[in-house]
Design brief:
Layout: E1 2-6, H1 19-22, H2 32-35, E2 39-42, H3 49-53, E3 58-62, E4 77-80, H4 82-94, E5 99-100, E6 143-146, E7 165-168, H5 171-188, H6 194-203, H7 217-220, H8 227-230, E8 235-236, H9 241-250, H10 255-262, E9 284-288, E10 293-304, E11 310-317, E12 322-327, E13 330-333, E14 339-349, E15 354-362, E16 367-376
Parallel strand pairs: 1-2, 2-3, 3-4, 9-16
Antiparallel strand pairs: 1-5, 6-7, 8-10, 10-14, 11-13, 11-15, 12-14, 15-16
GO molecular function: serine-type endopeptidase activity
Protein name: Cucumisin
Keywords: Hydrolase, Protease, Serine protease, Signal
């Protein structure tokens, strides 16, 4: 057990700091003579330098953050939610000689995993509400990877520890997983376009679920990447430069904006104006204002990359409030590379939340799954 002190009770007054400063434990705000050898309680901190330079032996933080992931710090540190933090702070303030200890971190299995961590951004897509974002999910929590020995373990000046491997969390950890999965798919299919590879990753992803129906696909997109399955997706939704030009023209982009994006002299016309619902994307999304009903028609084309002769049947999952019609409902292919077009009509009655279903093209071997999302948009 170590002596326990609140950061607010140990301001570095010689440097002009008050308890309003030291309660957050920022660099230079703590009085070393009061903090050294003790565990310090910080109301909220993104810093570890303050307690480290003041000689603390540990830190307890009340922040409400980091409830589903962890970081490595230069000192033993325990993150508490706001309720627990308030109780601990009361103990520190109301006890004559408060003491504390910080036990070694333990790891527990989470029955709800995999789920999307709190730090990951959510949809909907603010620029184009009728394209689902994110596209898919990849591992990004507590990832073990090589670490430069030129950088300290915690990237802080006071931390002199050097390691060859480290464990960190972030979307910057998820991105390399998705990139590696894309490279893996491309190693089997070197001529595939970026759109075809994205389609393979999205339509073979593990479906995920969420207790919060207000986020669902806005958290995980098509699901969790499944690289082994993505190498043989069966069908792909392919798209090229002209498809995206048509989409941008339909979105009202000017010739100058098009040139900045494409670095080509494209111009928009009636022939090149497309709609967002006809972009050959592996997901289907429609938005409307709260309380309205809506119907959208999506035109899609799939390319056969599975068995030369194959027949796919449409399997629709439509919960109450969502009507999904697919025409034709059977796609019969006679060769590899053959393209077939179909139309999906989606009708929805939307309150103030999201309704989601799916379309799966199934040939008995491949299940090519696309999420279908209808939601109430607050974007005008």
């Amino acid at each position: 057990m170590y002596p326990f002190i609140a950061g607010a009770a140990a301001p570095n007054t010689s440097e002009g700091y008050t308890s309003d400063d030291s309660r957050f434990c920022g660099p230079g705000t703590l009085d070393e003579t009061l903090v050294k050898g003790k565990i310090v309680f910080c109301d909220y901190t993104t810093y570890i330098e303050g307690p480290v330079e003041a000689g603390a032996v540990g830190v307890v933080v009340q922040s409400g953050r980091y409830k589903d992931y962890a970081f490595t710090y230069g000192l033993p540190l325990s993150n508490l939610n706001l309720n627990d933090g308030r109780n601990v702070l009361n103990y520190v303030n109301l006890t004559e000689n408060p003491t504390a200890t910080i036990f070694k971190t333990t790891v527990e299995d989470d029955q709800f995993a995999p789920f999307v961590v709190t730090f990951s951004s959510r949809g909907p897509n603010p620029a184009t509400p009728d394209i689902l974002k994110p596209d898919l999910t990849a591992p990004g929590v507590d990832i073990l990877a090589a670490w430069s020995e030129a950088v300290p373990l915690t990237e802080t000046e006071d931390d002199t520890r050097v390691v060859s491997y480290n464990i960190i969390s972030g979307t910057s950890m998820s991105c390399p997983h998705a990139t590696g999965a894309a490279a893996y798919v491309k190693s089997f299919h070197p001529t595939w376009s970026p759109a075809a590879i994205k389609s393979a990753l999205m339509t073979t992803a593990f479906p995920m679920s969420s207790e919060n129906n207000l986020e669902a696909e806005f958290a995980y997109g098509a699901g969790h990447i499944n690289p082994a399955q993505a190498a043989q997706p069966g069908l792909v939704y392919d798209a090229g430069e002209i498809d995206y030009v048509k989409f941008l023209c339909g979105q009202g982009y000017t010739p100058k904006q098009l040139n900045l994006i494409t670095e080509s002299n494209f111009t928009c016309s009636e022939e090149t104006n497309g709609t967002v619902w006809d972009l050959n994307y592996p997901s289907f999304t429609l938005s409307t204002s709260p309380g309205n009903s809506i119907t959208r028609v999506f035109h899609r084309t799939v390319t056969n990359v599975g068995s030369p002769v194959s027949t796919y049947k449409a399997v629709v999952n439509a919960p109450p409030g969502l009507i999904i019609q697919v025409q034709p409902s059977v796609l019969s292919f006679k060769s590899l590379g053959q393209k077939l077009t179909f139309v999906v009509t989606v009708g929805a009655e939307i309150g103030n939340s999201m309704i989601s279903g799916s379309l799966i093209w199934d040939d008995g071997v491949h299940q090519v799954r696309s999420p279908i999302v209808a939601y109430a948009s607050l974007v005008e």
